[in-house]
Amino acid sequence: MNSVQMLNQEMKQMNEMQNIKLGIKYGFIGLGMGGGSIAAACADISTSIQNNKYPYTALLINTNINDYSKLQTRNQNIHLVGLDGYEMGAGRDIEMGQDAFVKNKDKVKKALEQYMEDRDFIWIVAGLGGGTGTGSILACLNLLFESGYGDRVGLILTLPSDSEGYNVISNALKRLQKIYQTKDHLGAIIFVDNQKLYQEFIKEEPNKSDDDYLKFSNMFVAHTLHSMNIVTSSFKHRGSEYFDQSELLKMLKTSGVLSISKVSYDENAFDVSNKASYIPRFKEGVENGILSSDYNLKTAKLASVNFIVNQKSANRIYTMEFVSSIKDILEEYVPTADEKPLSEFIKDEPTNKIDTFILFAGLDMPKRALDLIDQKDKIEKERESIKNTHNPFEEKFASLTFEDDKPKKEQKTALFDLEGTEEDNESQKSKSFNPFNQ
Ligand SMILES: Nc1nc2c(ncn2[C@@H]2O[C@H](COP(=O)(O)OP(=O)(O)OP(=O)(O)O)[C@@H](O)[C@H]2O)c(=O)[nH]1
Ligand SMILES: [Mg+2]
User: Fold this and answer.
1) Distance (Å, rounded) from C-alpha 152 to C-alpha 164?
2) N or C: which end of the chain has fewer CB within 10 A?
3) Taking Cα atoms as reference points, which of 348, 354, 205 lies closest to residue 268?
């Protein structure tokens, strides 16, 4: 089964799961096309919870709200906010994107008051690199801080691919720089690395389109956030350490980057007495976040490992030997983290999988951010060298002449002045000229 099929299957199962409880009430503020699409996918998650089929809320904010016409959402708690006066879009101009948001601040504020008041945590979502979304981030953060949401706001940001070109990459970096400098005042930042996810997607689905990729990546983000959110409150647990929703909220409020890893084992292949059956995969999971990866895990402030197994496997797997071997690995990767609980969850639903969610909070940026700076520098260098190479066009066009540029032959009406009038007139003129007469 490839990852698209797996995602669809998991989303369906989760949608049908009975007795689930939600951990945190999320609100999503999607900025621009990419941000709005991801926020819409997140808020369109449905559950079997009575009277709360669609537990999330979203505001989708864009210059051109017609962009959103291809999103087919069902949740009534998804609201569109158009940035008036900028209906044509911001055309990858971040200054214009920022102006559009600032000029419509009151309108957004009203929507916030109307729809987001009861939310425990708000995610600002934007695709880094465009005009509207990227340009609106700072003004949107300001508005949330002004409106009292400052202690419960996080960011979900996509990082562009190398192939998206100089303007997209430099727009992304301009905002990333500002966000990096103020990150200690913000909650968690989740990066969705389009380069990484696209490469993984294309390997498995070479015949699909770019739009298929975007749809997949957005559902993947939505499903990941939702799965994390129900783990903490829907399953029974055993053991002394327990990651509940307040711990999750604490992680989301921890400044720095949040990395999410997931490892799924086939229950039959998991032999607790044979470490080789689970440790190498676990380490691989720790090192590779699913939405973005390549972090210096030593910078993590908090870590959390959550195993979810069925009742039958629980007795077999949750042994002291298993717990200590996982804890040893955590010591190796995050020796200085303030907290690193290992939670043992038990799922009532029949499953032949063992799922593990691993979270690291308070991280520094992923290596991909540095790669983007390198890519920007590389393009600038190449541009400079192109500018300095001999340009044959400049020289050739500068010296380009044409035969008919030469003075034209005077067209005479008569070849000879037979009556001598011309000469007479000339001598007349010079005779009458007297410089002292002036
Ligand atoms: N994962 C994902 N990334 C997206 C999606 N749409 C856009 N992106 C990324 O987000 C970046 C910004 O694109 P948009 O969100 O369309 O730009 P915008 O904010 O609407 O800005 P303007 O159209 O320039 O005003 C792109 O360069 C992509 O890398 C999406 O649906 N999913
Ligand atoms: Mg747009």
Assistant:
1) 32
2) C
3) 354
Residue ranges in the chain whose pLDDT is less than 70: 421-438
Structure tokens at 207: 């015949």
Instruction: Tell me the CA–centroid distance for residue 127 and ligand 2, in Å.
Output: 10
Q: How many CA atoms lie within 13 A of 117 on its CB side?
A: 5
* Consecutive H or E run containing 368: helix 367-388
Q: Which residues pair with 31 in a beta bridge?
A: 61, 126
Q: In degrees rounded to 5, what are phi and psi of residue 306?
A: -130, 110
Distance 172 CA to ligand 2 centre (A): 14
Question: Is the four-CA dihedral 205, 207, 213, 216 of positive or negative sign?
Answer: negative
What's the pLDDT score for residue 423?
Answer: 52
Instruction: For residue 415, give the DSSP letter.
Output: S
pLDDT value for 438: 46
- Measured distance CA(209)–CA(192) in Å, rounded: 19
Evaluate: CB of 221 within 6 angstroms of ligand 1: no
Q: Which residues contact 399 (CB under 8 A, 6 or more apart)?
A: none
| Domains of the chain from N-terminus onward | 19-234 (3.40.50.1440), 244-386 (3.30.1330.190)
Q: Tokens standing for 403?
A: 């035969």
Cα 231 to its chain centre, rounded Å, is 24
The model's pTM: 0.91
- β pairing state of 78-82 and 121-127: unpaired
Q: Name residue, tokens 């007297």.
A: 434
Cβ atoms 303, 363 nearer than 8 A: no
Pocket test for ligand 1, best of 158, 218, 290 (most atoms within 8 A of CB): 158
Tell me which residue of 362, 363, 270, 288 sits closest to 325, measured CA to CA.
270
Q: What is the whole-number distance in angstroms between the Cα of residue 216 and the centre of ligand 2?
A: 19
What's the CA gap between 359 and 305, in Å, rounded? 7
Q: Which two tokens stand for residue 25?
A: 């009430």
Cα(225)–Cα(220) distance, integer angstroms? 9
CA dist 351 and 353 (Å) reads 5
Pocket probe for ligand 1: among 157, 175, 194, 196, the residue whose CB has the most ligand atoms within 8 Å is 194
Q: Whose CA is nearest to atom 15 of ligand 1?
A: 34
Q: How far is the CA of 225 from the centre of ligand 2 (A)?
A: 24
Please give the single-letter amino acid code of residue 437: N
